[in-house]
Amino acid sequence: MRTDIDIATYKEKLLVEKAALEAELSEIGQKNEQNPDDWEATSPDVNRGETDPIDRADNIEELENNTAIVGNLETRLEHVNNALERIDAGTYGYCIVSNEPIETDRLDANPAAETCKAHMED
Ligand SMILES: [Zn+2]
């Protein structure tokens, strides 16, 4: 476990982000009952059985947009949850590729970062 960084501060940031992501997700989606880690986009209007074809097309488009947004939020939430798990495991702050400590400015910019700058994928 790293002692050169304040893990409690990063944990706090991660928990705040997790709560924000879950709040956003619950606005446009719902948890899959069988798998609480999985979120699905909801569009109440589609479920209501709109009969006007134009409204229906709009609703389907909205559902598609929501599905894309839910996918992005879900991916981010997964990274945040993984980071929280690494805190519990004592491996937080180490690059998952090289095992080198992740640069502090990188963690400051993204507390869920999994790699050092040399192994950044994005
Ligand atoms: Zn690395």
UniProtKB/TrEMBL annotation:
SUPFAM superfamilies: DnaK suppressor protein DksA, alpha-hairpin domain
Annotated region (Disordered), positions in chain: 27-53
Gene3D superfamilies noted in UniProt: DksA, coiled-coil domain (1.20.120.910)
PANTHER family: DNAK SUPPRESSOR PROTEIN (PTHR33823:SF5), RNA POLYMERASE-BINDING TRANSCRIPTION FACTOR DKSA-RELATED (PTHR33823)
InterPro entries (UniProt xref): DnaK_N
Name this polypeptide is given: Uncharacterized protein
